[in-house]
Amino acid sequence: MKRILLLGMVSVPLMAMAEDLSLRQRANYAFEQMKAAERDLTTITQTIEVKKGRLEYFKQKAIEAEQELANAYKESQEINKRVASTRNRWEQLSNQLLQGDSESRD
Fold first, then answer.
1. Distance in angstroms (rounded) separating the CA atoms of residues 97 and 91
2. DSSP string computed for the chain
3. What is the CA radius of gyration of the chain?
């Protein structure tokens, strides 16, 4: 009986130490997980900032491209007006020239 009692007295502190060690291991593991998550958060935060910067850059480029397109349309309209005007002037002069040629033949 004394042996059982003695064994019981020895095993209780061993179990407590095992539980303490297990708790310490779990705490260390949780700490490592927390640190890894913090690193991941830092990385993703930096990635987000880079992507936001790129998005702003491309938004600005899109605005510039839209403005260039609008300017090109405006220039195209002005050139179309100029083409129509010069075509009309050419037709008028050609008609006058044809009338002059037909009058001189008569």
1. 10
2. -HHHHHHHHHHHHHHHHHHHHHHHHHHHHHHHHHHHHHHHHHHHHHHHHHHHHHHHHHHHHHHHHHHHHHHHHHHHHHHHHHHHHHHHHHHHHHHHHHHHHHHHH-
3. 45
Q: Which residues, 6 or more positions from 89, have their beta carbon under 8 angstroms from its beta carbon?
A: none
Over its length of 106 residues, how does the chain's per-residue pLDDT go in tens digits? 555 545 555 555 656 666 777 888 989 999 999 999 999 999 999 999 999 999 999 999 999 999 999 999 999 999 999 999 999 999 999 999 988 877 766 5
